[in-house]
Amino acid sequence: MIFVLILSIISIIVLASTTEETITRNYCQLPDAVFADGVSAADFGTTGWNYANAENWEQLVVTCGGSYQSPIDIVTTVANQEPIQPQIHYKNKASDVAYEEANKPYTKEYEGEYSEIEVTDASGLVVRYYAKQFHIHTPSEHTIDGKYFDLEIHFVHQAIQDEEQDCNKVKNSLTVFGLMFTEQAYATDYEVFKPWFDQNVTGEVESFDLNDFFQKMTDTTYYHYNGSLTTLPCSQIVNWIVFYQPLPISTNQLNLFRTAFADSTVFPLKRNNRPIQHLNGRKILKGTALTTGVTEIPDVQSSYAYLLLSTIVMSAFIL
Ligand SMILES: [Zn+2]
Fold first, then answer.
1. How much is the average pLDDT of 237-262?
2. Span from the CA of 135 to the centroid of ligand 1 (angstroms)
3. pTM of the predicted model as reported, rounded to 2 decimal places
4. Pairing state between β 80-81 and 285-288
5. Which of 67, 89, 309, 314: CA 20 to 30 A from 196?
6. pLDDT for res 17
């Protein structure tokens, strides 16, 4: 009996250790930057690219002068109805997966081993992505009918490279969701933003689920177009999905972001948003997303939990 119990405990330890293995994720590659003549690298800062010289980025990287650049002004009256109704549902967010603060000098960003998501691009092709990072801009980068919002979050997803998905057939290696935020003086502070500003909180967030933001929306109307990165190297590889309904953000947290971008030599007026780019004939589609928001538990986690439970039950019988 004791032997059976010991065997069970060993098997649990073995299983528990396998769940902690580092997950390797393979992404479809992004194109290399095409630097302008005489420029070999362009880092963020007073001598590189910054928000004071945003009108001249194409003098550093040629792509920034391309005709499919972002952000854009979304004119809602010219958007055509999208023939699909996509779901926003991040799969397999394990409770022990953390999001770590990334040290980017031009934004506030979390990176992590995020969940998988399927996204339909503007041509109707379904592409599988990993949610890779999210970061913020203030004020917003996109405008809707000419209107700026106080803050915009970008959820960046990069296409998955594996046996089932051919990267050569993926037009946009990235899908980025843009979510708008409007100041509401006494809105509840978002827990997920606190590690960026509170020295007493570690730079990791464990309890946050990417589905959370979408569940707060009562209207999931979005606008969809082909565009680019809004920071260097401005690569024109982004399937953009910009949500219409802004979420609230407290005056307190909005001010924390603005204070983070206080260096006026690189952030004029405490802004880290690129100016609006020309649409150049691109089509804008309009749709409504389904946000089921149900996060599945990974198989390995549930089987571990099942084994633990069955071992406890079995041990009770044996002893
Ligand atoms: Zn961004």
1. 96
2. 6
3. 0.83
4. parallel
5. 89
6. 46
